[in-house]
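User: Predict the complex with GEK.
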Amino acid sequence: MKQDKLYAKNQQVVDFAFDEAVADVFPDMIRRSVPGYDAIISQLGVLAKHHAQAQTNIYDLGCSLGAATLSMHRQTSNLKLKHICIDSSESMIKRCQSHLQRHIPNNELQVICENMEDTVIENASIVVINFTLQFLEPKARLKLLKNVYKGLLPDGVLILSEKLLFEDAVENQLQIDWHITSKRSNGYSDMEISQKRAALENVLIPDSLEQHKQRLKEAGFMQSYQWFQSFNFASLIALK
Ligand code: GEK
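Assistant: Here is the predicted structure with GEK placed in the model:
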C-alpha cells in the first residue's frame, strides 16, 4: 500500500480533489484519516448479508476504489446481485474497475464514472453512500436522498456514513481534537493535518446527526438508526 505523503511538504494549499495523486494513495489515506473505516467496510458486508434481496441491484455511490462493494459481494455472492459502482473521479473509477473485475463476475458488476446526482436508481435492495454525501453541495443533498428512496424496493435500505458536526460546542471541539489525535497516532505530522484540513475546508461540509435524520425523514424514509460511531465519523441505516 502506497503511503500518503501528499501534504508532507509545506505548500500553497488548494481545494482537495479526487485526482490521480489522491487515487494512488487512497487506501492508505482513508485508513489513516477516517477512524473506524476498516470496521465500517467489514460490517457493510454483514449488513448486506442481512438486507440484500436476491436478484436486485446494490448501489455504491461515491465508491472510490470499491472497498464497500467488495465487502458486500463477499457476503452475498450466492444472491445473483448486480453491483453498481458510481464515482465522479476517473482516476478512482479506472482503478475500481480493474480491481473489482478480478473478484466479481462480469455480469454482476457495473462500474460507472458519473456524478451520483445523475444516477438512475432502480430495483435496489441496498444503496451505500460511504463518506460521500458530505462532498455534495448541502442544498443538493435532499434531492439525492429522494432519488435513492424512490429507487429502493420495499424493505430496501440506505446505509449512509458521514463525518459529523455536533450541536454542543464543547463536544464538537472534543470530537475534532480526538480526530486530530487519531491522525497523529496514525503517523501524520501537525503540518500534514493542518494543510489537509485547509484543503478540505470548502469541499467537505459535514452535517449533524440531527440534520441527517431530519433530511432522511423528509426524503421519505420511515426510520433511521445510527449503527456505528468512531469519534466524529458515524454510519446510519435508513429503512424504506
Ligand atoms: C469507500 N465510499 O472507500 N458523485 C460521485 N462521486 C463523488 C461525488 C459525486 N457528486 N462527489 C465525490 N465523489 C468510499 C470512500 S471517498 C471519501 C468515499 C473520502 C467521490 C469522490 O471521487 C471519492 O472517490 C468519493 O466520492 C469520496 O467506501 O475520501 O473521505
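DSSP finds eight helices and eight strands in the chain.
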